[in-house]
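debug: dumping io for the single-chain case to check the tokenizer round-trip. Nothing else runs in this session.
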Amino acid sequence: MKKNIDKFKRKLNIKLYSLAFVLLLLIGLLDYRIFYIKSKHGEEYEKKAIAQQVTQGLDIITKANRGSILDRNLQVISASNTVYNVILDVRNLSQLDKKICNKTLTELSNFLGIPLEKLNGYMDKDADGKLLNDTNYLVIAKNISRKKMSDIEKKNLSSVYFEEDSMRFYVHNDLAAQTVGFIRGDNCCGLEKSYNEDLTGVSGRIFRAYDSQNNVVSNNLPAQDGCSLVTTLDINIQKFAQDAINKAGEEFKAEHAAAIVMDPNTGEIIAMAQYPSFNLNDPANLSELTAKSLRTKLSSLPQEEQLNNLYNVWNNFNVSGTFESGSIFKPIVVAAALDQNVITPNSTFYCGGNMEVADRTIHCWKKTGHGTQDITHILANSCNMGMIQIIQKLGREKFYQYQKDFGYGEKTLIDLPAEQSAKSLMYKLNQLNPVELATSSMGQGFNNTPIQALNSFAAVINGGNLMKPYVVSEIVDNESNVIKKNNPVVMKKVISKETSDFMRKALKSVLTEGTAASGLIEGYNIGGKTGTGEQGKRGSQMYTYSFIGYLTIENPQYIAIALIDKPPIDVEPNATAVVKEIFEQIIKYKQIKSDSDSPSVFKDAFLLEDYNGKSLKDTIKKLNEQSLDYEIIGIGGKFVDSQLPIAGTPVEINSRIYLYVSNESDELIEVPNVINLSLQQATEILNKNNFEPVIINNDGDDFKVIEQMPSAGVKLEAGSQIKLKFQRKN
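debug: decoded output
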């Protein structure tokens, strides 16, 4: 028995020794392998491991600034600024001393204007003591300025850091809003959309890595800012058009009002305005809409319906809205008939007030008729009977071809998004029966967009060239190198120069003898055509009133259209007056000389100084000395960012100057409201707030303040002047 036990022990020991030997051998082999790997690849793997840990600690994408949008005079319309987001490391802050935590949150509240209760709420914990906001990355404020970021940074607050970002801003708020467009998340419209690829830059990256000596280094691949757009817009003329169209839209309670100013020879869009408009910096803000009635209407609607209505406001009516043109189309028909030699400038036609066409009796707007007229007077009087007889001579095939050649039913290919062709709202050739042909001569039975109407009219008076309209002239990089240039493009030669020359001169009679007499400007030869088109079903009593005019007859440099769309039934607007107002401002601005010995409309003008970058306080004083009115756009500041009109523009006494400001300062004082107060009351309040009153037209105690410049709420430096205008109390 003992022998068996000893034998079993010997065998077990042998097995155990064998197993131990194998294990030792395996360990030895493993050590050898580790030694081999470490000696052969150790340094490489170590760097990768450490680098991975390091780069996980810092790998930040830096946004590129979007390219700017400029007017033709290189005045900034839209640009991007570097701003900062404030990040709170809640997890880390919660582990610090309570005094440090309270100090951090209190300072943040003071700097950012965030209620302390809200900031303290970020530190709340659940029943198990776990943070409700258990994160190292909580964005508590966005888009703060560099100055504010720097001020916070100087406080060395625990668990607070900053993230660089880029913010888009629009200098002139509602000017050319639908044309310039804006960005909301990934969506954009207007030029911002058409040229999005050019405007968008390339993001940069900041990350940590190791150099060849194993030192940690930070790598910064800088962002590449986007290219900038130089547009054909003139921000001064844009302002003239926007003011005129805003006034008309409000006065006539129109559903839409619109205006375009274009160079008829090149197709360059100089201004494109629309009512209602909105603030590009805050497009969803109902209080910023230019239509007062729409503000009231939308404020009572559910949010979804508000948004649907806002889409309609953001939409560019000038390129995507359609309307029945009415009589502004008549020059197209006359030009086509002249070009085909089926009529001559001396041809005459009789208007008896109505005529039979197939089974219909069609009436002229003048029930008693115009009698016998030549071509010039048919245009001047906008005679329907004359137009029907002219189109009958032209015939439906030729009319259909010329209508297409002039661009109707086709996109103009303007460099703006969402352009409509209105092709589905045109008669096909086989639909142009006698009645349809007759009514087409008056601009009835089909639709067009404002840009189509203006562009085709330009071809009538520019020598016969249908141009391709455009808004951007150049795309430039950050070093001002021209990347792309848009030049004038003739899409088609539609009529002869001889026909165009006659039409350009004949259309002067519309203002001197005809339906647009209210558009006359003394000393200047202007041509154009009025129009009234009924929208929707006949008898709906919904009309679009329009006028297309050009300045001057001899050498047209500007052509403009004004539309007042669907005002109330009992209102009959005057679109001619809108174009007249725009042209009067252009004449002053561009110092266009009179065509006669009549006094110039800018005889009392002087050139506006350059106030860009100047002290706002000093600028206000200077404007008061020159008897110029002014308006501060922005919350206030110490310096002028930009101005309208721009420097060098001729202005007259009492002209209004717009000063744009955006700079921040804690030293500024808010201007109090003194409207409706007496001279004594207003003076006392202003003096108490450390402002200097400048008194205009006050003749006694029975006068009250009716206007103050700058207006209440603007923030200025102490000692700034406040101009007060008075009016006798009722």
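debug: round-trip ok. The longest strand covers residues 76-88.
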